């Protein structure tokens, strides 16, 4: 499988996409943010966080200490420091970087369900702990002034965090930024009041949890593609809703689900999948994309929105642990 052909980052795609439901880790979040505001990384702007909390240094000379030592010396990040040690990330976060860390306080960790921290600190859950911690880190030194007007940033973990600026307040995946611009010798720390969590469900489990892709899930099972779409990937899926499947001629679904039509069903489903994790901002202005099926879908951007082979994209950037889902309102069929 090859990665989506000729993808580039241009803002028009999401501008024309219809705002929809965004799901992270099986949790659906209503969003009214147009996709053209999605960014793959922080960019610099000339506008500072005028109304944001003013950073208060952790020590007299914070820039003389690295991120780990700065956090340890603050006295309010004991759980975070313990987690970094348990995850084996001390040397990484003491390295040259630079890194930007959205650091949850001890009180932030205390908000998690009882037993969560203890469970994450167990050696058997090290990989999960690493995923959680690296989801709080962005590569590069990103000061508060650079975050203004952005709606997202790619983390070291690989998934994106949502950034919102409203009424002078900044949130990262819903966590409030309570202090900014604590500079260290290898980056900067912004303090948040809640622990943020990456999506931990794969494409199949995310679709099941959404409740609006029952026909698609049944088709994936009938086609024997469950293990594939639960695999490492990453994959990009243009997912038709139950209403999309209902648009097909009567009897079509029942026929496709028959064992003797398995090859045809596989061909249709894989026509909805592109290899690689392709966010909305990457699809902009692309006219076609090669699918796992082997054939290419046509992508058009117009005043009515973004169309994939005539199907309208109604929601974008539903991240999963092994890729991303974009929702479409019709089933697309290979020629």
Structural description of this entry:
By secondary structure, the chain is of the alpha+beta class. The chain is elongated. Helix content is 28%, strand content 26%. It starts with 11 loop residues before the first helix and ends in a 7-residue tail after the last strand. The chain folds into two domains: 12-26 and 200-328, FAS1 domain, CATH 2.30.180.10; 38-192, FAS1 domain.
Topology:
Elements: H1 12-16, E1 21-24, E2 27-30, H2 67-74, H3 78-86, H4 90-93, E3 99-104, H5 106-110, H6 116-120, H7 126-134, E4 137-139, H8 144-147, E5 152-154, E6 160-166, E7 169-172, E8 175-184, E9 187-192, H9 203-210, H10 214-222, H11 226-229, E10 235-240, H12 242-246, H13 252-256, H14 262-270, E11 273-275, H15 280-283, E12 288-290, E13 296-302, E14 305-308, E15 311-320, E16 323-328
Parallel strand pairs: 3-9, 10-16
Antiparallel strand pairs: 1-2, 3-4, 5-6, 6-7, 7-8, 8-9, 10-11, 12-13, 13-14, 14-15, 15-16
- Segments where pLDDT lies below 50 for 5+ residues? 1-62
Helix percentage range: 25-40%
**Helix/strand-derived class?**
alpha+beta
- Tell me the count of domains: 2
The radius of gyration computed from the alpha-carbon positions, rounded to a whole number of angstroms, is 22 Å
Outline: elongated
- CATH class identity of the largest domain: Mainly Beta
Question: How far apart are the first and last residues' alpha carbons, in Å?
Answer: 19 Å
Multimeric state? single chain
Residue-averaged pLDDT, rounded? 83
């Amino acid at each position: 499988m090859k990665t989506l052909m000729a993808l580039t980052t241009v803002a028009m795609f999401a501008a024309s996409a219809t705002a929809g439901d965004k799901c992270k880790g099986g949790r659906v979040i209503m969003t009214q943010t147009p996709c053209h505001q999605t960014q793959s990384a922080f960019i610099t702007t000339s506008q500072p966080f005028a109304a944001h909390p003013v950073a208060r240094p952790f020590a007299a000379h914070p820039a003389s200490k690295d991120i780990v030592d700065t956090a340890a010396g603050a006295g309010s990040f004991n759980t975070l420091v313990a987690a970094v040690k348990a995850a084996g990330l001390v040397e990484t976060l003491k390295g040259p970087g630079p890194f930007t860390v959205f650091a949850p306080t001890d009180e932030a960790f205390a908000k998690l369900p009882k037993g969560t921290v203890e469970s994450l600190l167990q050696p058997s859950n090290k990989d999960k702990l690493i995923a959680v911690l690296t989801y709080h880190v962005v590569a590069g030194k990103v000061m508060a002034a650079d975050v203004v007007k952005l709606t997202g940033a790619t983390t070291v973990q690989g998934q994106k965090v949502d950034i919102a600026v409203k009424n002078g307040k900044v949130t990262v995946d819903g966590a409030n930024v309570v202090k900014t611009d604590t500079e260290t010798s290898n980056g900067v720390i912004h303090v948040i009041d809640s622990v943020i969590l990456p999506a931990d469900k794969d494409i199949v489990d995310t679709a099941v949890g959404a409740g609006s892709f029952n026909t698609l899930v049944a088709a994936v099972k009938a086609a024997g593609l469950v293990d594939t779409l639960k695999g490492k990937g990453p994959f990009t899926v243009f997912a038709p809703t139950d209403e999309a499947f209902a648009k097909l001629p009567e009897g079509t679904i029942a026929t496709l689900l028959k064992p003797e039509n398995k090859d045809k069903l596989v061909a249709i489903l894989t026509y909805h999948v592109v290899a690689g994790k392709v966010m909305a901002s990457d699809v902009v202005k692309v006219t076609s994309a090669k699918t796992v099926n082997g054939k290419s879908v046509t992508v058009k951007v117009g005043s009515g929105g973004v169309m994939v082979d005539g199907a309208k994209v109604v929601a974008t950037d539903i991240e999963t642990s092994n890729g991303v889902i974009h929702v479409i309102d019709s089933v697309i069929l290979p020629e």
